[in-house]
Amino acid sequence: MEEYRKFIADLVARNDSRSFLNSDEDHAREVLVQLFQNAKSVVRIFAGSLCSSVPSSEEYVTALSDFIDRGGQIRVILNAFNEEQAKTSNLFKRLAYYSATGRPITIKRSTIKPYLANDREQKEVHFTVGDENSYRIETDIEKRTANCSFNNPTLSKIYVQFFEEIFKEADLVDLVDLFR
């Protein structure tokens, strides 16, 4: 894993636009932590519930928290939100805390199940976009495999636009109320 971590750090340091793959949960965690560490203003997340092992990990929660503490904004759409799971999640507890203190955290729910335009099987994808520059597109939501890049504004902006269209219509999740 150390070699993969160095590979990612090198891509970031060189502002390399190369697209690369991640093959499992451990690799997903590494990419997402780096995405939070390198984003400047906003991270957009389209996911199922954010209650699986990757977003529940200490590394993920810490990287997200550090990003928020640096003034970052979090925008999330969930298409499999589970209120009971969220109430026991350290990630959701942290997000609710930040939301209660007025930080720019917005969680919404939707029934949309996005897929890649050229996928005949219409296999559901999830994605995370840092600013309008970096992305991780999860092409297999069970195995956590994904296509990633830390410097591809062209593709990142397409996902941001798609995200924002869904975000307008999605239903707000009141994080503070969730923990009352």
Model description:
- With 180 residues, this protein is an alpha+beta fold.
- The chain has eight helices and eight strands.
- It has an eight-stranded mixed β-sheet, with helices on both faces.
Q: How would you summarize the topology of this molecule?
A:
Blueprint (H helix, E strand, L loop, with lengths): L1 H12 L6 E3 L2 H14 L3 E6 L5 H4 L1 H12 L3 E6 L4 H5 L2 H11 L4 E5 L16 E5 L3 E7 L4 E5 L3 H17 L1 E3 L1 H4 L2
Parallel strand pairs: 2-3, 3-4
Antiparallel strand pairs: 1-7, 2-5, 4-8, 5-6, 6-7
Descriptors:
alpha+beta, about 45% helix
Q: Quick recap of the structure?
A:
The chain is an alpha+beta fold and 180 residues long. The protein is built from 8 helices and 8 strands, in the order H-E-H-E-H-H-E-H-H-E-E-E-E-H-E-H. The longest helix is centred in the C-terminal third of the chain and has 17 residues, at 153-169.
End-to-end CA span: 40 Å
> How would you sum up the major sheet?
8 strands, mixed
- Provide the low-confidence segments as ranges: none
Tally of helical runs: 8
Structural class based on helices, strands and sheet pairing: alpha+beta
Tell me which oligomeric state these chains represent.
single chain
Largest sheet, spatial ordering of strands: 1-7-6-5-2-3-4-8
Tertiary shape: globular
Helix and strand string, N-terminal first? Answer: HEHEHHEHHEEEEHEH
Report the radius of gyration as a whole number of Å: 15 Å
Strand content: 15-25%
Query: Helicity, in percent?
Result: 40-55%
Mean pLDDT: 95
Overall strand count: 8
